[in-house]
Each structure stands twice: as C-alpha cells, then as structure tokens.
Amino acid sequence: MEEKKHMVGGISRKTLERLPVYHHYLEGKFAEGTETISAPMIALDLKLNEVQVRKDIASVAKTAGKPKTGYAVKDLIDDLEEFLGYHNVNQAVLVGAGYLGRALLSYKGFEQYGVEIVMAFDSDGRKVDTKIGGKMVLPMAKLENLCQRMNIHIGIITVPAKAAQEVCDQLVAGGVRAVWNFAPVHLNVPDHVLVQNENMAVSLAALSKYLYEVQKKEEPI
Amino acid sequence: MEEKKHMVGGISRKTLERLPVYHHYLEGKFAEGTETISAPMIALDLKLNEVQVRKDIASVAKTAGKPKTGYAVKDLIDDLEEFLGYHNVNQAVLVGAGYLGRALLSYKGFEQYGVEIVMAFDSDGRKVDTKIGGKMVLPMAKLENLCQRMNIHIGIITVPAKAAQEVCDQLVAGGVRAVWNFAPVHLNVPDHVLVQNENMAVSLAALSKYLYEVQKKEEPI
DNA sequence: TAGATTGTTAATCGATTAACAATC
DNA sequence: TAGATTGTTAATCGATTAACAATC
Predict the structure, then answer these.
(1) Which CATH number is A164's domain given?
(2) Of B103, B184, B211, the CB nearest to A100
(3) Do B208 and A90 touch (CB under 8 A)?
(4) B91 vs A: CB within 8 A
(5) A40 lies in a domain?
(6) What's the CA–C1' distance between B220 and D21, in Å?
(7) Is the CB of A68 under 7 A from strand D?
(8) What is the CATH number of the domain that holds B23?
(9) In terms of pTM, does the model score above 0.85?
C-alpha cells in the first residue's frame, strides 16, 4: 500500500525533473507552429533516449500518441501543466532576505512550475516592510501566525547556518510540510515534514573536480 | 581506456557529492575533540548506509581504517581536502551580476570546496567597476582576453536566457572548459566543454508536487 | 501497403544494500 | 579471547536502454 519513497505521484523523481524540460521545449515548438511531434524528435533535440521520452510522456499524458504521427503538442503541454500543478499553485514563504533569498524572491521561474513565493521574513528591521521582487518582507514574529492563517505548506530557508534550525522549528510550528533548505546544516524535523537540502557548493565542486581530473590526464608528468 | 562518463577521477558523481558532507561533518567532530570515528557512527549521524560510508571513504582515504577503532578523523579530513582540491584551487569567472549572480559572488561556501570565483562580468555599465562580494565586476569586452590571460577554465552563467548562448560562446573562446549554467536554455558547446545545467525551479517544483500528492492522499473526496 | 512510430516487455547498467570473512 | 569494525564480494533495487510486436 505504501508508495516507495523515491516515487512522487506514481512517477520517479528523475522523470519529474525532466517534465519541466519537456514543457519548456514544447512551448517553444508550439510557438513555432508545430502541431504534432514524435518521441525520436524530442529525444534528438533534448539529447535524451527516445524510449525514455516515451515513458516519461506515458506517465503524464491523458491521450495516447499515434504511430507514425507522434503526439499532439498542445495536448502534451496541457497534460504537463496539469500534472505539474500550473493551475493548482502551492504557496511558499521564504525566510532570510540576504543575497540568495533576494535572488529566489526575484526569480521568475517558480510560478510557471506551480509554486509561488508569497512573502518573505527577515530578522533585520531594516529589511522589514520593504518589497523584494514584488513580495513583502515581514518580521520574524509574524511568521508562525501568518503561515497558519494562510495555510502555507512550503518554507524556504536562506538564513545563515546557525539560525536555520530555529527558523525551521518556527516554520514547522506554522504548519509547513516541506522545507527547501539552503543552509549547510542538517535540520531536525518531525516525520511528516520533508526536508530537501540544496548545497550550491557541491555542484560547482563536482564540476571543478571533473575539470581537475581531465587536466591531470592531459598534462602527464 | 576511456573512463566512463559518470565517473570522475575514479569515483562516481554520487560519491563525489557526498564527500563535502563527510568533510563538514568530520570538521565538526574534530572541533569537538573526536580523534577516531567508525563508519556506523558516521552513517547514523548522516542518515546513510554504513557500507556506503565505508566505500566512499575507501575511494579517497590513503590510510586504511582499523577494525574495532575506525578511522583517524584528522587523516580523513586531510585526505578529503586533498581529493577535493582545497590546496589546488580552480578559478572561475561569473557572467551576469543580477540577483543570482550577486548571491553566488557573495557565497562563502565555494572556496572551501576548491573553487574560487575571481571576478564577474556584466553588460550593464552601471555595475561595471563596482565590487560585489569583494570581486570586481568588469565589462563584457574584457571577458575573452582576461579568461585567456588568467588561464581560467570555469565559467558561471547567470544572465537572462536570451543572452546565455552568446555569453557561453565568449567563455569558450576564452578557453573555458566547464560551464555552470543557470539560464534555462540548452547551450551548444564543442565536445571538449562540459555544461552543467542548474535549474532552481525544478527542485522546488518537485517538492511542491510531492506535497500535492501527499495532500491528495490525506484529503480523499 | 510499407514503414515510421507507439507502447511494453526484457536486458543492461549503475548505485545501494546485504552478507561475511579478515583482523585488531 | 570475544566482539566490534573493516574491506570486499554477492544480491538487490531503480533507472536507462534495447528489442519487438502492434498499429496508424
């Protein structure tokens, strides 16, 4: 009965990560006037395997593709949007209006993926009552109460590491069910709360390491 | 002879991503005065499998662990630092000093993972010649030449989508071998250049979708 | 019809986890 | 010694890719 941890709504996280890529690609095709498209074509353009494309599509599409023709671009876009929750926006709050917090508040990409950051909180009085990316920055004292009243279930933590656990506790007290954590600390939360850690440094470190290995090979002693 | 694509320097990318986590954890333990530590202990604290911990350690450690005792914390830290290139810093440039660019320029976490962003470029004359996070913002015209002269091999793209390909071309012309791309576009590069795409929206979208599925289960019709 | 494309079942591949002998 | 822990080989698990019959 229990769904496996790495599955979300019947599809794997890997597939879920590719869905917005298809959506973006299909939007472009649709704008160009393309009405139908085949899996091999999508796979070629996005550098994916065509079977993978078909399986991904099968997991979200309501209508089947047609042999020899492919899929209706408009239908695919609609199905992707419904699946990704475009018309069912989840609201989120952000805590910590530093550089990273401001970057996220100003980022235009979230809403098209079914998430809207509705307000921010910061402990710095100078930031409170200003607007960033069109969103109000409010004092920490209002966090718990506002999250509850607005029935908000997603919290984004962009505060320094030493403040993160306390912020997290306040979010959980406010009813938040999922936390996107940019602070480089392990957060302790109740079982019903999901924490997703984001470590910007790791991605760049991996890239750097890769480069170092390549260079080592090219410049033998 | 050819190393598999998903392997970097003999270890998988997954392992590579965990190494900084071990490093951060061990630094904390070392600061507390812990001299030796076992794989089961690390696994417990970091919520990993103990065999995985042992394999990860085996892939970077110079000295073996001792049965019944575990590993010398200081040695492990040293080995991790050497492997991650702490003492062998790769330099990077960033293009696009918007909110996200400024967040990355001010982020303190990169240098401890062997990467240093040494300067930024922006097409906006008002930003040129200012300093962000202690790093100079320079005009685009200087990008290619400076990358070449300073022998810089990593470029970070935080410009709007429509400018990204041109920026990427300039970086490649300047000798960059690895590109960390935050713009939501597919970049075309020569074979010897590695592009790593970062899509902030995908992570949050996945979290949101997960939450939506959980809620659907809890509130049946 | 012929053949391109779909959808699905089977094979492969990589990463994680389990099992277990070696050893301090 | 007894037993905790290491290092490694085997089993499992998930995701990707290949093979192929169905079909428009």
Answers:
(1) 3.40.50.720
(2) B103
(3) yes
(4) no
(5) yes
(6) 40
(7) yes
(8) 1.10.10.10
(9) no
Contact map slice: B 173-212 vs A, CB within 8 A = 177-178, 180, 184, 186, 194, 196, 198-212
Domain boundary among A42, A58, A84: A84
* Residue B49, in any domain of the structure: yes
How far away is chain A from the Cα of B98, in angstroms, using its nearest Cα?
Answer: 8
Q: Parallel, antiparallel, or unpaired for β B178-181 and B154-157? A: parallel
Residue at a domain's end among B84, B116, B132:
B84
**Rounded-to-5 percentages of helix, strand, coil across chain B:** 45, 20, 35
Is B78 in the same domain as B100?
A: no
Q: Which helix (H) or strand (E) holds B43?
A: helix B39-46
Residue B125 phi, psi dihedral angles, 5° rounding: -55, -25
Provide the domain limits for residue A70.
7-84
**B98 and B188 belong to one structural domain:** yes
Give tens-digit pLDDT for B151-210: 999 999 999 989 999 999 999 999 999 999 998 777 888 878 888 878 777 778 777 877
State both tokens at A147: 């999250």
**What's the burial of A27, exposed, middle or buried (CB within 10 Å: 0-12/13-18/19+)?**
middle
Chain A residues whose beta carbon lies within 8 Å of the beta carbon of residue B17: 202, 206
Is B99's Cβ below 8 Å from some Cβ in A?
yes
Residue B12 pLDDT: 85
